[in-house]
């Protein structure tokens, strides 16, 4: 290879960082003189010597090294490149499909010379080809011979394909239904209503059963109506949208269900008669036991509430006195110092203390808001009022308010995936985000990043807030959602210990749950998941 020293270095770097198997092979010595890291890794090898020992039996599974060399040499006499797809095996026995390419590294004026060998993993491509060919072979068995009626239509509601079962079910000959409107198979009285439902479904298609809890009817060619179950699906092909109905005749099933209902009614009457007799004989005993149990439960509940109330009062007094003392002290000291700056040129100093007073008052307001929220939650005065909201818009507006709390060089990063519309209580979700972000800012240092992620999926919505803060020990994580609880490593940071308790209660109101992942000095991630099903 005619390369300068710099060229050689560049060539080596390029080869070593190639995602493909790249080797230089000497057919005179029957050995590789170079093999890059990808090539070694592909065959689970550690060095070039080990590679040459392994490839001594041949590169491919079905021929020896000499056979391979002869095949390549003959091919390169008339072509600039040798290429073939084949199966390969690693030392551990793992087999995979690969595409091997061989080129001469110099002008092919002789049959000898060094070969540049490339090998790419095409396992996924081969797997797809095999699946596709098998899928085509199975399509007719799955579609045409399915033991249920299958009718496919285009977006204009014209029938484009039916299977044999559907033709027999509705009494039509093969291909007779092609091109007809889907309303052909419906009761005449429902044709107009069905068009309205079809337009709505075309606007927002989804895989779902039809008419759950309703007695659906379909119409045969002779006008006969019969009971059916229908499921809907859809797909796109070449930019065109198609819809599939899966239809089952449940006439016999309906008949059996009706007979079962009548039998169950008879059995129910007999059971009710027996149950009434038993109830009459045991009524006095049941009432007595019920009264005793209620009295016991009321007493236990009263004692439990009294004990809990006493503990809460003690913790509230201790927490309130501690949390109120700091901002009140700041207000008192700043108010006293303002009077010491009467001159006009002392305005900057006065504004500094006024800012401290405002900040302390804001802190007191937040503390009182947390106490009031806990009280309302305990009394059941907070309810969820659901409405559709735009997730990115809600989060960005909320983060704009939280940004006022950021420390020096802290920043908030927001990521969203999935649909943007969510049915939830906007106010409660906003308070959850504010609480989690405030905690993340409070317990993270300067120049740190707080990441807020949201994801909307069909079955659930996920909100996570990740910080780079001081973290939480495993022992403290067990009590994080208890009222007034604070970790042992945050005693010097202001807080009430109510934030996560409130978040958990709001999440319960929205039908979700909260989880925490954290390590000391590595940060914390709080995840809120709301079920949407």
From TrEMBL:
Main enzyme class: transferase
Residues covered by the Histidine kinase domain: 319-533
Domain PAS, residue spans: 135-179
InterPro entries cross-referenced by the UniProt entry: HATPase_C_sf (IPR036890), HATPase_dom (IPR003594), His_kinase_dom (IPR005467), HisK_dim/P_dom (IPR003661), HisK_dim/P_sf (IPR036097), PAS (IPR000014), PAS-like_dom_sf (IPR035965), Sensor_HK_Regulatory (IPR050736)
EC number annotated for this UniProt entry: 2.7.13.3
Pfam families to which the protein is assigned, alphabetical: HATPase_c, HisKA, PAS_9
The keyword Kinase appears for this protein: yes
Entries under PANTHER family matching the protein: SENSOR HISTIDINE KINASE RCSC (PTHR43711:SF26), TWO-COMPONENT HISTIDINE KINASE (PTHR43711)
Protein name in the entry: histidine kinase
Species: Flectobacillus rivi
């Amino acid at each position: 290879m005619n390369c300068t020293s710099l060229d050689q270095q560049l060539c080596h770097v390029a080869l070593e960082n190639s995602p493909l198997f790249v080797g230089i092979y000497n057919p005179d010595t029957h050995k590789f003189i170079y093999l890059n890291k990808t090539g070694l890794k592909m065959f689970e090898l550690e060095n070039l010597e080990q590679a040459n020992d392994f490839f001594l039996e041949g590169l491919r599974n079905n021929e020896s090294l000499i056979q391979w060399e002869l095949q390549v040499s003959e091919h390169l006499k008339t072509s600039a490149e040798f290429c073939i797809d084949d199966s390969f095996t690693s030392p551990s026995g793992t087999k995979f499909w690969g595409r091997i390419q061989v080129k001469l590294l110099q002008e092919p004026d002789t049959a000898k010379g060094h070969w540049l060998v490339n090998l790419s993993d095409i396992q996924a491509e081969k797997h797809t080809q095999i699946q596709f060919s098998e899928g085509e072979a199975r399509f007719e068995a799955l579609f045409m011979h399915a033991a249920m009626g299958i009718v496919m239509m285009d977006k204009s509601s014209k029938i484009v394909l039916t299977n044999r079962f559907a033709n027999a079910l509705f009494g039509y000959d093969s291909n007779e239904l092609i091109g007809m409107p889907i309303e052909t198979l419906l009761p005449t009285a429902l044709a107009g209503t069905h068009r309205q439902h079809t337009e709505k479904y075309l606007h927002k298609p989804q895989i779902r059963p039809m008419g759950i809890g309703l007695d659906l009817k379909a119409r045969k060619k002779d006008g006969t109506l019969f009971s059916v179950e229908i499921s809907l699906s859809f797909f796109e092909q070449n930019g065109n949208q198609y819809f599939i109905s899966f239809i089952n005749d449940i006439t016999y099933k309906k008949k059996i269900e009706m007979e079962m209902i009548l039998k169950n009614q008879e059995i129910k009457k007999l059971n009710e008669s027996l149950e009434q007799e038993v109830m009459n004989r045991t009524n006095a005993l049941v009432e007595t036991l019920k009264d005793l149990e209620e009295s016991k439960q009321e007493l236990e509940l009263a004692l439990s509430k009294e004990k809990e109330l006493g503990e809460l009062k003690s913790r509230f007094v201790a927490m309130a006195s501690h949390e109120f003392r700091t901002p009140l002290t700041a207000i008192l000291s700043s108010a006293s110092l303002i009077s010491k700056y009467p001159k006009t040129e002392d305005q900057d100093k006065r504004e500094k203390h006024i800012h401290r007073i405002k900040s302390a008052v804001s802190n007191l307001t937040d503390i009182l808001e947390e106490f009031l929220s806990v009280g309302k939650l305990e009394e059941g005065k907070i309810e969820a009022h659901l409405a559709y909201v735009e997730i990115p818009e809600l989060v960005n507006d909320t983060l704009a308010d939280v940004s006022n709390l950021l420390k020096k060089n802290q920043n908030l990063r927001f990521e969203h995936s999935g649909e943007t519309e969510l049915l939830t209580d906007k106010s409660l979700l906003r308070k959850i985000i504010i609480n989690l972000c405030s905690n993340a800012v409070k317990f993270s240092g300067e120049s740190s990043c707080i990441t807020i992620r949201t994801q909307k999926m069909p079955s659930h919505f996920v909100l996570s807030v990740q910080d780079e803060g001081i973290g939480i020990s495993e022992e403290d994580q067990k009590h994080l959602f208890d009222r007034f609880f604070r970790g042992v490593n945050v005693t010097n940071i202001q807080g009430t210990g109510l934030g996560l308790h409130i978040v958990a209660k709001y999440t319960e109101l929205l039908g979700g749950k909260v989880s925490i992942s954290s390590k000391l000095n590595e940060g914390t991630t709080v995840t809120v998941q709301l079920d949407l099903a």
